[in-house]
């Protein structure tokens, strides 16, 4: 993997990409390697890469038979709100939230771009009091609201906050060191963004999907959920380069899985769209 890291580091310098740290994990021997390009804190905001962790938590609940993706979100959260502004909210399922087909306009509940107090103190009520602009299940329109709702679903069905649940079922089993997750004013995990983790830990989630849900021989999440997530496009999408797929985050974060090379790659950065790095990692190395 050292050749891959060296070449990616060279690519960053030649193109002046503001990427801080890159980590690579070989799917066969699970040995993580990383390289620092610029000085950075140990943990960095992964922005929308956080959604893959929330999606994985949903999968763990599905595996436990505590949740179905066909369930209605307002039914699950019935005790958490008073009413909805649009009766079509009652048609919104977990599956629709996973694929951003809840019916809201793009960018809704984006705490990274707007003052969080814009949404008041009760984010759930604020969201459900919005009229829907599309029929649920029809248009895929990207919003952080979809994954905030999923974070609340996890909290309800797991009977604990999303991050606590993932510490038990994912972070600790995969030997994560430090994790912090942004919360709404009422203390619920955002789910869609605000996940602060180490790059060498973030890459482990990519390896988990690469290895059909296994980590060091132990089945962490079911192979069926991995297959479902990749088939239905639950946040992990094809890059257009070979069989590689991944998820990017605001300002240049990336979680990339390259099945042909049996490895996962992750990086944290700021203010860069590193399309060239994705292509380099997916196609041009380790042939």
Report on the structure:
- This protein is of the alpha+beta class.
- The chain folds into 2 domains: 1-42 and 199-287, Beta-lactamase (3-Layer(aba) Sandwich), CATH 3.40.710; 45-197, DD-peptidase/beta-lactamase superfamily (Beta-lactamase, 3-Layer(aba) Sandwich).
- 35% of the residues lie in helices and 16% in strands.
- It is built from 10 helices and 11 strands.
- It has helices at 2-15, 50-63, 73-76, 94-98, 123-128, 144-158, 162-171, 199-210, 223-232, 275-284; strands at 19-26, 32-36, 44-45, 179-181, 195-197, 214-215, 218-219, 237-238, 245-249, 253-258, 263-269.
- The strands form 3 sheets. The protein has a 6-stranded antiparallel sheet, sandwiched between helices. Strands 3-5-4 form a 3-stranded antiparallel sheet. A two-stranded antiparallel sheet has the order 6-7.
- Helix 2 packs parallel to helix 6 and helix 2 (50-63) crosses helix 7.
- The longest helix is centred in the middle third of the chain and has 15 residues, at 144-158.
- It is globular, with a radius of gyration of 19 Å.
- The relative contact order is 0.20.
- The mean pLDDT is 93.
Summarize the structure.
This protein is of the alpha+beta class and 287 residues long. It folds into two domains: 1-42 and 199-287, Beta-lactamase (3-Layer(aba) Sandwich), CATH 3.40.710.10; 45-197, Beta-lactamase (3-Layer(aba) Sandwich).
